[in-house]
Amino acid sequence: MAEAAKPTSAYAAAGVDIAAGERAVDLMKRHVARTARPELVADASGFAGLFRLDTSKYTAPVLATSTDGVGTKVLLAQRMDKHDTIGIDLVGMVVDDLVVSGAEPLFMTDYIATGAVVPEKIAEIVGGIAEGCAQAGCALIGGETAEHPGAMRPDEYDLAGAGTGVVEADAILGPGRVRDGDAVIAMASSGPHSNGYSLIRRVVDQTGLELSEEVPELGGVLGEVLLTPTRVYARDCIELAARVAVHAYAHITGGGLAANLERSLPEGLGAELDRSTWSPQPVFRFIAERGGISREDMEATFNMGVGMAALVAEEDAERALAVLAERGVPAWRAGTVRSGADGVRLSGEYA
């Protein structure tokens, strides 16, 4: 006699697989465990992540928070069926905004929405988030995976995250600390990071390129190069600020180098940058040439090889470069803060 089929719940019939969600949680636990910090507090219910702030370490602690996503880069991850690094991008977008204020990232939470929960895929995504948190030194203390059948295709997903950090009130960095003559120290990006991907996808589609094809000038498969994860600067920036007189940081995201650096300058001060001090990665030239995109548009869209900038006292410029070199962060003197300068001006040609 044949075994009777297991009854399907009404919710599962509507497209939401609770069992798959539970399996995804089980699979991601080992990834999350990698990010543990001693301040974590166990919450048996699992409804919230708890974190004990050790106030004895601070005189006047100020909490900082940031939230972000990865934009349409996630669509390339889906087309490549590669999901293990997109979470690093998410963490980079969040924690490197936090560190601009001088805040140490403490913990993050994530949110993943998908058309259908495939436990192994969700675990890959969370594995990337955990790797990013490990690089940043922050804990991944909670998250949510939501199944949205009908609103998203089964193979679609999107993700977002929120992070919290802490900084001493008298150590908050920003425009108010910046002075005429400060050095602009540029830190290399790993590529486009998580910005400009709507334009990148249009270039790929309009030129008939295949993400799976080898591109000699890029030294690899196109899709894999475009999915190079965002460089996470948080720990490096915290260490740099502890050892030299950093006045401000600028996280170079959407809008490019000039627009983001300008946000970290006070009224009356501008910055003069010299393009000849660096050479953007080949991927930027590839996008510009294949898409017929002007330098002006490229610089207004992409980081062009600079993922983070530090404004430091002139006398600390060489020391700052030495600290970053010790930590394996490619960096260089890109320019100078000037009084009376009109915003951020780039001159010269890329090296």
UniProtKB/TrEMBL annotation:
InterPro entries: PurM-like_C_dom (IPR010918), PurM-like_C_sf (IPR036676), PurM-like_N (IPR016188), PurM-like_N_sf (IPR036921), PurM_cligase (IPR004733). Residues 179-341 form the PurM-like C-terminal domain. GO terms for cellular component: cytosol. Keywords: ATP-binding, Cytoplasm, Ligase, Nucleotide-binding, Purine biosynthesis. Pfam families: AIRS, AIRS_C. It catalyses: 2-formamido-N(1)-(5-O-phospho-beta-D-ribosyl)acetamidine + ATP = 5-amino-1-(5-phospho-beta-D-ribosyl)imidazole + ADP + phosphate + H(+). It is an enzyme of class 6 (ligase). Residues 62-167 form the PurM-like N-terminal domain. Its main location: cytoplasm. Gene3D superfamilies: PurM-like C-terminal domain (3.90.650.10), PurM-like, N-terminal domain (3.30.1330.10). One of its GO terms (biological process) is 'de novo' IMP biosynthetic process. It is found in: Cytoplasm. Its EC number is 6.3.3.1. Pathway: Purine metabolism; IMP biosynthesis via de novo pathway; 5-amino-1-(5-phospho-D-ribosyl)imidazole from N(2)-formyl-N(1)-(5-phospho-D-ribosyl)glycinamide: step 2/2. One of its GO terms (molecular function) is ATP binding. PANTHER family: TRIFUNCTIONAL PURINE BIOSYNTHETIC PROTEIN ADENOSINE-3 (PTHR10520:SF12), TRIFUNCTIONAL PURINE BIOSYNTHETIC PROTEIN ADENOSINE-3-RELATED (PTHR10520). Belongs to the AIR synthase family. HAMAP family: AIRS (MF_00741). This is Phosphoribosylformylglycinamidine cyclo-ligase.
